[in-house]
């Protein structure tokens, strides 16, 4: 073998390095040739490439029209949303009519199916009251839950009485919804849960399903606290909560006050803004960082304020006038900034009394317009000051409640929602409200249910249905985007919410529902894409992006073209991202239906489980069909009403025919006893751009080293609704003709020792040629490593005694293009990042440009928080407090950005995981550098190393001499660091706003006690004057 000096760089600096370079080159070449031969032979890659070549003249390559693609997608999604909206409108009409026909009867006795009590029996075996026999059958359409498709059930919060007259009457008249529920489901079998959330507190759900309380026998669910209910029932609002912490509030009263404030926070949604002020003789902002302003009522902010409520203590005297003035000033100033809800405003007053009416304060700040509603909550049993507080409510279009015990809190707090919803109800606005994605991957759509004919301004409740995101994802023509990034974005007003993206699926923070687009496409520094989609524009955008794969440990660099448009009739936008190059092209093939169906029905063939070739969900009679069965019936004309994607089916039939010869090829290898005698190769597999896959086992299934591979357990290794398999995507990014080798992280962590090898198949020898398929094998790690060590024993010495050997003089490693170790003498290091083992060498490789460090961001991270002794906890609290101030200040208007890393010194003690944002590095090799050498100075000792690419692969051999101790050099790790980010984000406000209505009855303003005659006389002229305006 002749080695050319120009390829070896520094190898000629000294004889030792020259021999080392020569040996490494020899070993790399030998191993590369051997492992590629094995991979190509058992995967059948050359055969498959030839078979596609044979059809070259009968296929047509086309460039994907991204604009047309996204517009067609928007039209299809518009149809899905329209059908769901129609279903809820039918529920609205039925509910209003049923209530109109019903006369409330306080003595009504009615047995209904209680969701908790159905099918429950007493000690004697008899059905319990409100239980009864309720037929339940498993249904795969509802996640295999046991349901009743004929009836709904009713859930009543644990803190409410099941037979309260209001509950019984509401349940009685809402039974009329059962018929509509069933009819909706028959019209649209893709519907899932339908429901009616009553303003009285009960929740009617279809189909009927049994609810199970927690270990304490409690079901804390109250539909009126859910985001979908709050958004549909009320207009966006700015709220200041005033809490009396004067000396008279000590003990139980302060406990009730805290719970009252917490319950008020439960009723605020992400369209709302708030702040909390505690007052005695002074004004105390519960969060000192937020003096004089309001903050968005998202879950994180509300939880932050709840933590501060426990720090309140009572002392001194209460100067309510100063607190009211402060609250009015905040609301006025904040409104003038153009931020916040720009709709309704309210002051919630939690106190044990008011010695006067403070009409001078109201006259200065709130009259005559009365833009700010006042909602006083009198804490305690005494009613000496009830008249003053109720007068405040009535004079300012609010509502007065008295709360005597903790049990009274929930229902009394809820009463203010009736008042806030009155303008919407009187306007008879059935606003369709679309929420963001929920944790169970359902996009919830709700329609406000109103009633006017008998009791003006009375909210009956909210009806709604869920839209599974999977239903929307099925609309994507995945065979056209193939190895491109499959990103579909949905946005809702008023704040951008991304309802779907593969980056969001790896794990969820507590209270996670959705993330902002800027947290996914973070390379869009100027927010061009985000702002365009927030404002529902149609257009295109391009940028270089970095996408993480394999549990965030690897990175793919690509150039994406984005296409976006609005979805008519909704507040949503949809966008699609296509990667340039091969991802911009697809091809159309053609074979006979008979040949295609014959090869499609072979036992080694499977279709992508979450792809929709035929929509078997639309008609009940089609639900039992597999996709292959549905395709056969459709193509043979036996089911004319079955809706299928004819283009996709034609392409999958083409792939079935082209890939069919591999079944016989693999079988021949398996039957040849002289082949694979040590069973080092376990599986051969292929996948095509149409979602078709074939597999062949070379060993019995129970002997597989990794039995999860290519199963539903291996989510990144199979075709899903949102992505192609990882081995397919990564192979598509490699140079054509090369194999990609890796140890799957999903298995390496569990010590399942396998190596995957895959390569992409191109249709044509052209840069515009699309990737049509990928093939690969799974082999035992021990088999793979043995081939490596065998190659490393080769040398050119005539006597067979090598002057350099991995056995003693040097440390030999085999790493991949992301720096992860596949082979090393120390088995425990297998799968680790190379920089953790050889930090000094990795640093040198980064300096020389052989590898590049790429910084990535994780906005769904969980960080460890340490709690130690009281002293250490206090120190941590101080650090956290400063950080919180920073976060809260810039979260006021949905701001989040600034390059500030936070690495607080943690104290020893108990740890817990808390939500955080992190920055972490990934590493990728420089493709143009095939080999290089370097020297490292380890405290005066010079250590040499050689890195050499393995031909036709993504692998590198790294050889390091071991004569120096470089253990003092710090490792290069992929550890994340916590960061805080802030940017000002563009938002679109809700289009619907109903702050007041001239027909409101302001005298419906309180409970618990009646106004005294003098106060009534004082109030009536005020109310009259208000009405006249």
From TrEMBL:
Its main location: membrane. GO terms for cellular component: voltage-gated calcium channel complex. One of its GO terms (molecular function) is voltage-gated calcium channel activity. It is a single-pass type I membrane protein. Keywords: Calcium, Calcium channel, Calcium transport, Coiled coil, Disulfide bond, Glycoprotein, Ion channel, Ion transport, Membrane, Metal-binding, Signal, Transmembrane, Transmembrane helix, Transport, Voltage-gated channel. The keyword Phosphoprotein does not apply. InterPro entries: Ca_channel_alpha-2/delta (IPR051173), VDCC_a2/dsu (IPR013680), VWA_N (IPR013608), VWF_A (IPR002035), vWFA_dom_sf (IPR036465). Residues 70-105 form a coiled coil. PROSITE patterns: VWFA. Residues 238-420 form the VWFA domain. It comes from the Eukaryota. Gene3D superfamilies: PAS domain (3.30.450.20), von Willebrand factor, type A domain (3.40.50.410). Belongs to the calcium channel subunit alpha-2/delta family. This is Calcium channel, voltage dependent, alpha2/delta subunit 3. It comes from Sander lucioperca (Pike-perch). The gene is cacna2d3.
């Amino acid at each position: 073998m002749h080695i050319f000096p120009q390829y070896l760089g520094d190898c000629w600096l000294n004889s030792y390095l020259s021999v080392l370079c020569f040996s490494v080159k020899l070993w790399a070449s030998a191993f590369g040739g051997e492992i590629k031969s094995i991979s190509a032979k058992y995967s059948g890659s050359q055969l498959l490439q030839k078979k596609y070549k044979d059809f070259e003249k009968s296929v047509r390559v086309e460039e994907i029209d991204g604009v047309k693609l996204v517009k067609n997608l928007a039209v299809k999604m518009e149809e899905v949303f329209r059908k769901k909206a129609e279903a809820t409108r039918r529920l609205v009409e039925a509910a209003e009519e049923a209530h109109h026909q019903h006369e409330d009867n306080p003595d009504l006795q009615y047995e209904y199916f209680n969701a908790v009590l159905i099918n429950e029996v007493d000690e004697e075996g008899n059905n319990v009251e409100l239980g009864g026999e309720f037929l339940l059958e498993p249904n795969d359409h509802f996640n295999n839950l046991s349901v009743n498709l004929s009836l709904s059930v009713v859930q009543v919060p644990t803190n409410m009485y099941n037979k309260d007259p209001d509950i019984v009457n509401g349940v009685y008249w809402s039974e009329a919804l059962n018929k509509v529920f069933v009819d909706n489901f028959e019209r649209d079998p893709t519907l899932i849960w339908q429901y009616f959330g009553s303003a009285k507190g009960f929740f009617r759900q279809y189909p009927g399903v049994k609810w199970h309380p927690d270990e304490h026998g409690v079901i804390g669910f109250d539909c009126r606290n859910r985001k979908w209910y709050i958004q549909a029932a009320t207009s966006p609002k700015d709220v200041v909560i005033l809490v009396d912490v004067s000396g008279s509030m000590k003990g139980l009263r302060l406990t009730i006050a805290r719970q009252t404030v917490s319950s008020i926070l439960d009723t605020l949604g992400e369209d709302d803004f708030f702040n909390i002020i505690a007052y005695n003789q002074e004004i105390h902002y519960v969060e000192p960082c937020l003096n004089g302003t309001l903050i968005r009522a998202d879950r994180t902010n509300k939880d932050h304020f709840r933590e501060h409520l426990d720090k309140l203590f009572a002392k001194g005297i209460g100067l309510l006038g100063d607190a009211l003035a402060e609250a009015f000033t905040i609301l006025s100033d904040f409104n003038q900034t153009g931020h916040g809800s720009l709709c309704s405003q309210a002051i919630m007053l939690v106190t044990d009394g008011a010695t006067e009416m403070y009409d001078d304060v109201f006259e200065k700040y709130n009259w005559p317009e009365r833009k700010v509603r006042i909602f006083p909550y009198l804490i305690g049993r005494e009613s000496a000051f009830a008249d003053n507080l109720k007068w405040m409510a009535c004079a300012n279009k609010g509502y007065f409640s008295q709360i005597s015990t903790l049990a009274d809190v929930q229902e009394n707090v809820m009463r203010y929602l009736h008042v806030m919803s009155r303008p919407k109800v009187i306007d008879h606005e059935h606003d369709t409200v679309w929420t963001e994605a929920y944790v169970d991957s359902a996009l919830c759509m709700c329609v406000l249910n109103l009633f006017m004919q008998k009791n003006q301004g009375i909210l009956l409740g909210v009806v709604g249905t869920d839209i599974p995101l999977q239903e929307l994802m099925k609309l994507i023509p995945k065979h056209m985007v193939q190895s491109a990034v499959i990103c579909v974005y949905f946005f809702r007003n008023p704040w951008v919410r991304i309802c779907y993206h593969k980056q969001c699926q790896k794990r969820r923070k507590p209270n996670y529902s959705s993330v902002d687009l800027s947290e996914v496409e973070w390379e869009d520094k100027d927010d061009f894409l985000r702002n365009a989609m927030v404002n529902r524009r149609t257009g295109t955008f391009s940028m270089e992006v970095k996408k993480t794969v394999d549990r965030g440990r690897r990175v793919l660099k690509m150039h994406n073209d984005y296409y976006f448009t609005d979805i008519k009739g909704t507040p949503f936008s949809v966008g699609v991202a296509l990667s340039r190059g091969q991802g911009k092209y697809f091809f159309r093939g053609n074979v006979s239906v008979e040949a295609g169906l014959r090869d499609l029905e072979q036992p080694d063939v499977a279709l992508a489980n979450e792809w929709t070739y035929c929509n078997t969900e639309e008609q009940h009679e089609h639900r039992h069909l597999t996709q292959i069965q549905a395709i056969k019936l459709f193509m043979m004309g036996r089911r004319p009403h079955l809706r299928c994607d004819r283009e996709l089916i034609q392409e999958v039939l083409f792939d079935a025919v082209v890939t069919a010869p591999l079944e016989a090829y693999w079988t021949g290898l398996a039957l040849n006893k002289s082949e694979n005698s040590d069973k080092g190769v376990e599986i051969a597999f292929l996948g095509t751009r149409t979602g078709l896959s074939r597999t062949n086992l070379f060993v019995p299934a129970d002997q597989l080293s990794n039995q999860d591979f290519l199963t539903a357990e291996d989510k990144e290794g199979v075709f899903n609704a949102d992505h192609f398999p990882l081995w397919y995507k990564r192979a598509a990014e490699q140079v054509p003709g090369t194999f990609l080798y890796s140890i799957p992280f999903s298995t390496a962590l569990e010590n399942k020792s396998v190596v995957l090898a895959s390569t992409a198949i191109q249709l044509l020898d052209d840069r515009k040629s699309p990737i049509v398929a990928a093939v690969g094998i799974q082999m035992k790690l021990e088999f793979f490593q043995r081939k490596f060590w065998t190659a490393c024993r080769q040398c050119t010495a005539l006597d067979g005694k090598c002057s350099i050997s991995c056995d003693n003089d040097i440390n030999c490693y085999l790493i991949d293009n992301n720096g992860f170790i596949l082979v090393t003498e120390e088995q425990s290091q297998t799968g680790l990042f190379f920089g953790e083992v050889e930090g000094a060498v990795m640093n040198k490789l980064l300096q020389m440009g052989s590898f590049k460090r790429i910084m990535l961001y994780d906005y769904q991270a969980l960080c460890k928080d340490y709690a130690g002794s009281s002293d250490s906890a206090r120190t941590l609290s101080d650090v956290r407090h400063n950080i919180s101030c920073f976060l809260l200040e810039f979260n006021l208007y949905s701001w989040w950005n600034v390059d500030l890393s936070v690495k607080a010194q943690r104290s020893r003690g108990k740890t817990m995981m808390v939500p955080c944002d992190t920055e972490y590095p990934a590493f990728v090799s420089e493709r143009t550098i095939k080999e290089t050498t370097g020297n490292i100075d380890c405290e005066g000792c010079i250590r040499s190393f050689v890195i050499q690419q393995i031909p036709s692969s993504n692998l590198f051999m790294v050889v390091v001499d071991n004569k120096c101790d470089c253990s003092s050099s710090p490792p290069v790790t992929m550890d994340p660091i916590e960061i805080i980010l802030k940017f000002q984000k563009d938002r679109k406000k809700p289009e619907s706003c109903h702050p007041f209505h001239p027909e409101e009855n302001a005298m419906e303003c309180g409970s618990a006690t009646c106004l005294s005659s003098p106060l009534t006389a004082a109030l009536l002229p005020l109310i009259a004057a208000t009405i006249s305006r």
